[in-house]
Amino acid sequence: MARHLSSLLDSEQDRIAFAWASALSRMRPSAYVYRPLEELRRLGRAYLAELVAYLDSDDPSRLREFVHREAALRFSMGFGAVEVVQGFVVFRDITQELCAQLVPDREDQLVLSRSLTEATDFTVVEFVTFFNHLSEERTAAQQKEMQDLQRALVDEAVQDEVTDFFTGRYFDEHLAVEVKRAARYHRAFSLVLVDIDDFAGLRDRYGTVGADATLRSVADALRALTRDVDIKARTDDEAEFCIAMPETALEPATAVAERLRLAIGKLPVPQDAPVADWRSLQASVGVGSHPDHGSTARELLQSVRQARDQARMLGGDMVLRAEISAHPGVKLP
Q1: 3-state DSSP call for residue 184?
Q2: Is it the case that residue 48 has pLDDT exceeding 80?
Q3: CA distances (Å), origin 128, targets 47, 83, 85, 116
Q4: Whole-angstrom Cα distance, residue 70 to residue 134?
């Protein structure tokens, strides 16, 4: 009986193609305005040929592959599943009508019609399933792209791309939280600020690549000589590093600051120069603690920066403590 269906390829291909195109474009007519008639014929003939092969062999693999290809094509064109399924249904109806004309025997008509309906149902189920799979894949890809973008924006907001330290904006927020925690629980808290001396001249001499390499080497030294719980940041000032040290009083914080200064002084600039060309780095370092040098995060940071500025004015390469605040607040026991 499939041969009767096959004969439709020659006798009614234009009618089938137009019916298929009409069904597909019913809700989206502009999509087919410039589509060649031969492509519409191809679409109708190709589907009908796959139906014939399916009815002859009862092997769904070829028809499934065809449906998956067409689903991917329609999906890429922006069609919805309902639009294309409508085309399959109209296609089934018109081929059944033609089967009634070509198959005289009523019983044969019913058998062929039932087979055609089952084949179309199989097509619709396969199409909708695969179309939904493509939609879910696209949604997942879009969600991942959005998550990656959000993660990149977050990383950019809180992480310095050169040193992998936190940014100054994040550090300011963290410092405010730590100072409030120290005040509430009467815990020691100190702040160390390290600034590379004459960094502008270093950048002029060795360029951006050399300057960034120097920043990374300094960051490595700070990371190696401080605890994991110490929050380290590179602020908006080009060569300024801040280290928040919870549970740390002024004396041990000053000792750490001196070790950092000495370690930075052993770093060569530029990094890949022969030993004879090395020029050691120097750093001006300010140290302060809460609440003696500031009862708020802003006051503490300002006091430590003033100490750093004074160290720089005295020639750099030294550690200075901040001056006692005029309103230190509650003293630590």
Answers
A1: helix
A2: no
A3: 16, 11, 8, 18
A4: 12
